[in-house]
Amino acid sequence: MSGFLAGLCVAVLPLLAAGFWLGRRTARPENLGGLGTPVEHATFETLHTASLAAPPLRAGLTGETARKSARRLRTLLGTDALCLTDQDTVLAWDGLGEHHRTEIMERLGSPLETGRGEAFRLKCDEPDCSLRWAVVAPLTVDDRVHGALVVCAPRESAVLVRAAGEVARWVSVQLELADLDQSRTRLIEAEIKALRAQISPHFIFNSLAVIASFVRTDPERARELLLEFADFTRYSFRRHGDFTTLADELHAIDHYLALVRARFGDRLSVTLQIAPEVLPVALPFLCLQPLVENAVKHGLEGKTDKSHISITAQDAGAEALVVIEDNGSGMDPDRLRRILAGEVSPSGGIGLSNVDDRLRQVYGDEYGLVIETAVGAGMKITARLPKYQPGVHSAGPLPRQ
Question: Among 137, 240, 256, 351, which is disulfide-ready with 117 (CB 3.0 to 4.6 Å)?
Answer without folding.
Answer: 137
